[in-house]
Design brief:
With 340 residues, this protein is α/β, with parallel strands linked by helices. It has 2 domains: 240 residues, Aldolase class I (TIM Barrel, Alpha-Beta Barrel), CATH 3.20.20; 92 residues, no CATH class. It is built from 13 helices and 12 strands. Bound molecules: flavin mononucleotide.
């Protein structure tokens, strides 16, 4: 298979058959989803979110009991429980740690590496990619602004040219708007060692998100997954890409309230940002767990317009691999034709 050849480096890095990561999704990525992805040859990531540290540790244990596949954990540096999560993970013997949220400290990256895990960092801008490599990241995920959840400011197309085509010190995975084997194949020919997807994996049977949450994904078009605006530089918020609903309007109201409080010195900047994170964690829980698709947060990437069927994880993986391999064969034929 052509695709397996192109995937060798990423597969070796992650210790799995296919370097297709199911990106961690708070309230979504649990032991069941991670195990299913691993069983199908991919690489799952457990989401730390802001869960109580005991619950997070128990989920790691549960994942280990469900299979012996390697998997990773995702830590959100801006989550109120972050420090406890980090300390627990240092002693948990996990294979891979992905830092998300803000920029992890060099000391924290070093601690995780010393504990025996590989460190993957997000790079949402060119400057961040270089910083993360300098600080010791073992690999990067270039995530374009097409992605679901908290997003950076730059599209994947530009990040590929700024980072993937220039940095060869560490393996690079790509994310944001990828949902087909065809796209995956093209990313690999450009030099990516693997991909990360979120939106596509929400649409799986093994994903325990409420059926109403998945129903919204089935209905939505790419243009429905919009990024939240930042109103004022005094309250720097990380934009979130989600399907527009009452919840997105509520966030706009919260931002204005917080800006007014900041202006009146009734709240500090850090506390205001903490309130923002608390809002998202709660709103996402309401949508994913309770099925409140009106007021909850329907975090989704623009790839929502590419998926309308709920499949098994094995079915998704098989489709991705077959399509990617066919695409590579087509590319090879096209190149051979040119040479004639
Ligand atoms: C519902 C949802 C929740 C997410 N939560 C997290 C998270 O907790 N940590 C994280 O690093 N990324 C999170 N993400 C981003 C995904 O891990 C992944 O990088 C992203 O979905 C890739 O883009 P795609 O949606 O276009 O496939 C989330 C995405 C979604 C859709």
């Amino acid at each position: 298979m052509y695709i397996e050849k192109l995937m060798e480096k990423g597969a070796q890095f992650l210790g799995c058959k296919y370097p297709i990561m199911c990106g961690a999704m708070t309230w979504v990525s649990d032991a069941r989803l991670v195990t299913a992805v691993g069983n199908a040859g991919g690489f799952g990531l457990l989401a730390g979110g802001n869960s109580p540290v005991d619950a997070f540790e128990a989920e790691i244990q549960k994942t280990r009991e469900m299979s012996s596949n390697p998997f990773g954990v995702n830590l959100i540096t801006v989550a109120p429980n972050y420090k406890e999560h980090l300390n627990m993970v240092l002693n948990a013997g996990v294979e891979v740690v992905v830092f998300a949220g803000s920029i992890p400290k060099a000391k924290e990256i070093a601690q995780v590496k010393k504990a025996g895990a590989k460190v993957i960092c997000f790079a949402a801008t060119e400057a961040l990619a270089y910083k993360m490599v300098t600080q010791g990241a073992d690999a990067l995920v270039l995530e374009g602004s097409e992605a679901g959840g908290h997003i950076g400011p730059v599209s994947l197309t530009v990040l590929l040219q700024q980072i993937l085509f220039k940095i060869d010190k560490v393996p690079i995975f790509v994310a944001g708007g990828i949902a087909t084997g065809r796209m995956m194949a093209h990313m690999m020919t450009m030099g990516a060692v693997g991909v990360q997807m979120g939106t596509r994996f929400v649409m799986s049977r093994e994903c325990t998100a409420h059926y109403k949450f998945k129903e919204q994904f089935i209905r939505a078009k790419a243009r429905d997954a919009i990024a939240t605006p930042a109103f004022d530089s005094r309250l720097p918020v990380i934009p979130v890409r989600a399907l527009k609903n009452e919840g997105t309007n509520e966030f706009a109201k919260l931002q204005l309230e917080l800006i007014n409080k900041l202006e009146a010195n009734q709240i500090g900047r850090d506390d205001a940002q903490y309130e923002v994170e608390r809002f998202w964690m709660g709103a996402l829980r309401r949508a994913v767990i309770d099925g409140d698709v009106v007021g909850g947060s329907l975090m989704a990437g623009q790839a929502v317009g590419l998926v309308d069927e709920i499949m098994t994880i094995q079915g998704i993986m098989d489709e991705l691999i077959t399509e990617a391999d066919q695409t590579l064969a087509e590319i090879k034929d096209r190149l051979c034709d040119c040479g004639k």
